[in-house]
Each structure stands twice: as structure tokens, then as C-alpha cells.
Design a protein that fits this description.
By secondary structure, the protein is an alpha/beta fold. It is 39% helix and 15% strand.
Amino acid sequence: MSTFKGVKALIAAGAGLVSGAAGVCAQELTVLAHPSIQASVMGTTGTGGDALADWRAKNGVKINWVTADIGPLHDRLMREANLSSTAIDVGLILDSYATQAALSKFEPLDTCLKGLDLSDIPQTFLDQVTQDGKLKALPIRHATTALHYNAALLAEKGIQQAPASFEDLVKTAKALSERGAGRYGLSIDGTNAGGTFNVLMAYGATLTDAKGQVTADAEALTRAFQALADLYAAGALPSNFTAMGIDQITQGIWQGRIAMSVQPFNRYLTYNDKSKTDYAGQIKVAAFPAVEGQKPPFVARTTVWSAAIPVGSKNKERACALLRQLVEPETVVRMTLNGNGPVRTNAYDDPRVKEAVPYADAEKQAVLGAKFVISPFDGIGKAQDLYLENMQAAALGRKTAAQAARDTLDGIAAARK
């Protein structure tokens, strides 16, 4: 039997709260989230305003936000989710933390979300938080990677458009590089496992399948590692590539020392900050290209935040009402205007989004083909560390690409045992 006993009344009320005397006193919900999600909902950034203001006023709801960075947030969320009773009514979980063990601590949402059309949310996003055929969390926010490029620097070399294939990207990166002058054609965050996942996807490589089983395709991974090694050897990647994080890459883009970078779409606004760079307006963004003949024509690594209701929540119906409101099309559009990556792809077709987000069409294209390179399991942290170690070794020439690929897959298989 569903724990959402009032769900029929809730649906009939248009996702309003099931309560006796509306407006007598505010009913509270406690939400554990990353600060960026709170900002996109509350409208402290962007132009969408407070996306839940009308809903809170209509239903007499006060939201208590508890925010934290990714690691501490998930530590707190799982501690609370293991309690028989918790003050956390809704928690946001990142896909890499959504293991089967973690998902078992949250309420199934199928009854809660009954009647909602979620068909424009990519099935890949939903599958990642589904357990035994039951949706355990609702995708709310994505960060999907893209290729950012300085059109002015490309034009200096006679290149008038973004690379259409990965082979073209490699050629362009090499043409734009002058290692002796400290100029590089391409930057990729080499300090974390996810930084180079787009290169893997360009070759059709993954580390696990959707069920978390280790891939047997060592050849595709070898080709991806070899591509990174070739780019580094040619001076197309920064000499400190494996120690160069987001802040250093951003500085390089602003200064014109880096011509292209692989970062989430929303870095577009940061890269084109006229107070920081002389290239404002010249830094464009496009979907990341695959190798020639690889399907689909564009690839995109994604990370997704999803909202979940702990089994021990004391306000499940109220929490359910919040989740339903968070995926209302108007709420999604307003959050998008505040900088959120919308999981509803129809949001990209809204005229307000098209006007405010210059890259809306390219991001929609990327999201429709977005994938997770590694599915979460209890040893995912160790697996990502193994991948990072071997990727760096291959890129720097300390291991052959083939050996690094084999060591990566063998190591992940061992981490799963």
C-alpha cells in the first residue's frame, strides 16, 4: 500500500497540499540540497524570480533549506535516510551517489507522481534512479558537458565554425596550440574522473553498462586514452593538464591562452563575463562531437540531481506535493532562467528560455543524447580513482593506452566484488 494516502486528493487539487484550514499557519518542509539548486529555485541568481513563491503562498508552505557541498550533503542525506524518522522531508541526490543501497532508503514515487506527463524527461535520467521498476527519485537538474570555443582565436587560423567531428576537434586543437608561448588549443579538467569522459564517449566507450556491469570494450577505451596521449604529446593540452582544474581553465579562457574547453553548457555565462575578458561575446558553445561514423553524432556526459523522499520523512504527502510542483513546466522554465539545467527538454522551446539562453538549441540536442559513463555501485569511488590514475598515466605516457585501459577495467571489476 502506498504511503501517499492522500495522493488522490492531492492530484485533484492540482498538487496543492491536503490540509484542513488553509492559511491558518504555515506548514514546513525541510529540504537538503546543494546551494546551486536552492539558488535556482529561490531566484537569487538569474531572471526567473522565486519559482515557488506562488505555490508556497497558495498552500501555506514554508521551506527550510539545508545546504551543503556535494560530499557533506550526501553524508548527511544518507545518515538521515537510515533513520526511522528524519526531519529531512526532501533530499537531493547526485547520480553517482544513487547506488542501489542508497535508493532503497527512499520512497517509491510512482503513486506520488501519478497523472504527470514526464515524457520529455530523458529516459536515461529516470533509469538512473529507478530500482526494481520503481522510480525512487525525480530528476530536477542536469549539468551536461559541451565544447566551448573562442571564435576569435579560431578565426585567426581561418576556422569559421565549431569542429563537426572529434577528428576535426583534434586537428583544430593542434593548429591553435603554441606550447612555447603558453597557448593551448584544448583544455579538459584532468583533476577529476569525469573531466575526460566526453573523450571516452566520442569513441563510444563506457566504463560500465546501465546496470553497473563492467564493459568488455577495452578497444574503445584504448582509443580514447590514445587520443588524450596524442593531444598531450602534441602540446594541444596544457602541460599541467592533470593538475589543472576549473578555476585555472577559466582564467586561461578569459586570457585567450586556451582556445577550447570541455565544461558544462552553463559555463558560457562565466566565460563571456565582460568584466573578466576581452573576448566576451566571442566564446561560443556547441555540442561535443563524436568520432566520424559514431552514433549519435554528438555525445554528452551528464550529471543529474534528483529529489527523493526519505522513508523516514514525517511529511510525505507535503513532500510529494513539492516534487510535483518542481516539475511543473512553468516552474522548470523559471528555474532554467535562474541557471538550472532543465531536465524537461520542452523547456528549451519556451520563448523566454530561447531569448535568455543563447545555447538552448545546442544544449537540448546534447541532453537528448546524454549518457552516464559509469553507473553507481557501492565501490564507485574506488573505481573512479582507478580510472583517474590510469587516464593520467596514459595521457602523460607513463603507460601505454592499451595497458591503462586494461588496468582500468580490471580494477573496476575488482572494486565491484
